[in-house]
Every structure is written in C-alpha cells, then in structure tokens.
Specification:
16 strands, alpha/beta, FAD/NAD(P)-binding domain, seven-stranded mixed β-sheet, about 350 residues, about 40% helix, six-stranded mixed β-sheet
Length: about 350
C-alpha cells in the first residue's frame, strides 16, 4: 500500500516536497488556502545545491523549458557602491547564473501534483489518515505553532523590503549600502533587471510605494535612479522582514517543517527559495531510505536543521552589516581597502596558467 502524505502549503517548499515524495512512490495531497498559484513574482537565483535538488526531484528540465528561466554567463563584475556612486569594491565575474521566475518555478513544481485550493487547513479529518504531515505554510506557520508552541513564532528583524523587476538590462549590477538602507540591482535575464531595496524600520509602509522609494533612494547614484525610473507601481512587492527563531527540531512525531516554516530568513544572502527546494528533496530521500517515517524524519532533521539555522544567522548579520547605522564610515574604508587589494591581485590570478 502506498504511503500517504498531506502537505500544508503550495509554495516552493511544499511543492518540492510533493515532487520528491511522489518520485519515491508516495500518494501526496497538497492543501493550499489561496485560490491559485501566484501569477507574479521576481526572478530567483538558483544556487548549485538547488539545481541539483531540482534534478533529484525531476523538475529541473521542466523549469528550464519555461519562459521564466534564464541562464546568464557571469563574466560581468558586481559592484558595491556608496549612495554617491563611489565604488567600494568590484567583485569579478564567477560561476554562470541560473535564474527562474517564481511563478514559472511554482508552475513546474506543481506539474502532476494534486493541489486543493481555497482550503483552510487543520481540520482533523484532513490529516488524520496521513502517514506524514508536512508544514510548508510559510513564515507565520500554523503547523509550527501547533507542534512547537507560540514561543517559536516568527520575529521581526526591524526592517522592510521592496522588490520587483523592470524591463531592460542594465550595464552594472551590485548593491549600494547606506546608513540604515540598501538598494540592490541584479540581472533577471537578457532583457530585464531585478531590484530590491531595504530600510531599517519597525513599520511597513502603505501604498503607493514608488513615492517612498523616491524619497529614500531617489537621490542615490545614477544606476539606482535609472532603475527607479523604470519601476511600475503595480509591480512593487512590499513586506516586513521576519525570521524563524532557532527551533529545537524540524520534526515532531509524523509532522515535519520545510522552507520558511522551518527557517524563514532575511533575504540578504538570496538563499530562502533554494534552501526550501533542498529541504523538499532531502525530506523525500530520507523517508524513502529509512525503515520508518519517524526514522526518516530524524535523518531529515539531522541533515537540514543546523545548516539552515547557520544561514538564518548569516543572512541576518549580512543585513545588519550592509545597513549599519553607526560605523558605516570605517566599514566603507575597510571595504574600499579590500577592493584595492582585489584589483591588484585579480589580474595576476587570471594570468596564471
């Protein structure tokens, strides 16, 4: 008899888990409170571990076939600027960059998955017969609350973010760091550009949002101004930033947490979506290889908890460092010194056989 799983949430973590379990012969039902998968969202960078996990669950080729997939040869450099446009650091191009839009990735992950939309979960009859329950219900996870209690609720990082995509490629990519704020520009394919902005604030902002962006970032250097000029108000996403506290376990009994439900993190390392995909692939593999669901979940927790919790901490510290409100001047001097050294060393390294 097939083992049955109920997954709560049809986001990246939930659908990755669904594909992984299906690949290992499980019967899977996904319960989602929204009416449909989202039709909008920015491009997501796929780190090597995420690409490998997409391959493991049989989705990488489906993702590549979508219009939302882009491959960019990373021969261009990335810069770190001050708001006035002074370059503090230039990082040479590295590995090729693989990008996929959030809607395209979700659509690929949803292929062949039984999703029940418009469903408020946690009615006992919805999960009573399941061999495995997976909480993939995001940063403010009800599953996490039920199995671990209120003291592990997501906590505010005292910062907010705006993000989106504009048409047209830009010549230079990178981040601009200021006291209490940052603005980032990344590629989103050959003819589009991702942007993101963050501000240290204990409150979110009411729309319209473009005036807020112009107020805080409109006087910054030309690259930022060029992106701001292309932003469509209706395409701006805005939200507060939260993280999951350090959980004692990602599992309890036959229930497991994946993605933001387990380890919501600040966006400053660009790892949230990637780690959710790896969670799903790892969970499917662990329960398939184990003698029991419980031992498989123990293996999953061992494989994923400490690693992702380190990333949660690193992401928070990176955001604090980028948006220092005191000490920005010595930080900038240190980064400029690093940049000077790298400009001397990099050509010599590239010339080595």
């Amino acid at each position: 008899m097939k083992r049955a799983a109920v997954i709560i949430g049809a986001g990246i973590g939930g659908l990755s888990t669904a594909q992984a379990l299906k690949r290992h012969g499980w019967s899977v039902t996904v319960l989602e409170q929204s009416a449909a998968l989202p039709a909008s969202g920015t491009m997501l960078g796929m780190w090597p571990a995420a690409l490998e996990a997409l391959g493991d669950i049989g989705v990488v080729e489906a993702s590549r076939r979508t219009d939302g997939w882009a491959h960019i040869a990373a021969d261009a450099s990335t810069r770190l600027w001050t708001p006035a446009g002074r370059t503090l650091l230039t990082a040479p191009g590295g590995a090729d960059l693989h990008l996929v839009s959030r809607p395209a990735l979700l659509a690929a992950l949803a292929e062949g998955v039984d999703i029940t939309f418009n469903t408020q979960v946690f009615e006992p009859e919805q999960i009573s017969d399941a061999d495995l329950v997976v909480g993939a219900d995001g940063t403010f996870s009800r599953t996490r609350q039920l199995i671990l209690g209120d003291r592990f609720s997501a906590r505010s990082l005292g910062a907010v973010a705006w993000r989106g995509t504009v048409q047209g490629a830009v010549a230079e990519h990178g981040e601009t760091w200021a006291s209490g704020a940052l603005f980032g520009i990344t590629p989103a394919g050959p003819d589009a550009t991702n942007w993101y902005a963050s501000l240290r604030s204990d409150r979110t902002f009411a729309g319209p949002h473009l005036p807020h962006l112009q107020r805080y970032f409109g006087s910054w250097h030309r690259s930022v101004q060029d992106v701001l000029a292309g932003i469509d108000e209706d395409a701006i996403l805005h939200h507060g930033l939260f993280e999951t506290p350090k959980l004692p376990s990602f599992v309890r009994g036959r229930t497991a947490l994946v993605g933001d439900a387990a380890h919501a993190m600040a966006p400053f390392l660009g790892r949230g979506a990637c780690e959710a995909i790896v969670d799903g692939a790892t969970l499917g593999r662990c329960v398939a290889q184990a003698a029991s669901v419980e031992s498989g979940l123990t293996a999953y927790d061992r494989a994923r908890r400490k690693r992702t919790q380190r990333l949660v901490l690193s992401s928070r510290l990176m955001g604090r460092f980028a948006m220092l409100e005191a000490g920005a001047a010595p930080r900038n001097a240190a980064m400029a010194a690093v940049g000077s050294v790298s400009r001397i060393i990099s050509p010599k390294l590239r010339s080595q056989p």
